[in-house]
Specification:
35% of the residues lie in helices and 29% in strands. It contains 4 helices and 6 strands; from the N terminus they run ααβαβββαββ. The strands form 2 sheets. Strands 1-6-5 form a 3-stranded antiparallel β-sheet. Helix 1 packs across helix 4.
Length: 140
């Protein structure tokens, strides 16, 4: 139970820094921690269409997704990069988690609590002029 409370308080403190009141931040933090998964899109995929096109043709069961913290990123100190690895040891950089999601997960990752990805899918690409995207579910 202490581990759960620690996660809740870490997330709540980050939400307070973003401007929420302590009571609302605590409620939202409990929802995030107790939820089955946090579903989000991956940002920055428009620059990684070649990698996503290759991943679109692969069985989703053969793809493992890793989240990597980038504390020295020049654009966002809470940046969390998303990598997709295939069984044949090929690794593709997909993009980044959205700022709001990264702001919540970054302090947990800094405390060595690695969130796991429950689901990953490549979206779009159904027409020649439609870009690919990516979505994933993260268990906190």
């Amino acid at each position: 139970m202490n581990k759960t409370r620690s996660k809740v308080m870490t997330i709540a403190n980050r939400l307070v820094k973003q401007g929420l009141t302590r009571s609302i931040a605590t409620v939202k933090a409990w929802i995030i921690v107790k939820a089955n998964a946090l579903r989000t899109k991956v940002k920055g995929t428009s620059r990684r269409q070649d990698a996503l096109e290759k991943l679109a043709g692969v069985n989703p069961a053969d793809i493992s997704v890793k989240l990597k913290r980038e504390p020295h990123n020049a654009h966002d100190r809470n940046a969390v990069a998303v990598y997709a690895a295939l069984r044949d040891n090929r690794v593709f950089f997909i993009g980044y988690l959205p700022k709001a999601v990264a702001a919540v997960l970054a302090p947990l990752m800094d405390k060595h609590a690695e969130p796991s990805t429950k689901a990953f899918r490549v979206t779009g690409g159904f027409n020649p002029y439609v870009n690919y995207g990516a979505a994933l579910a993260i268990a906190v």
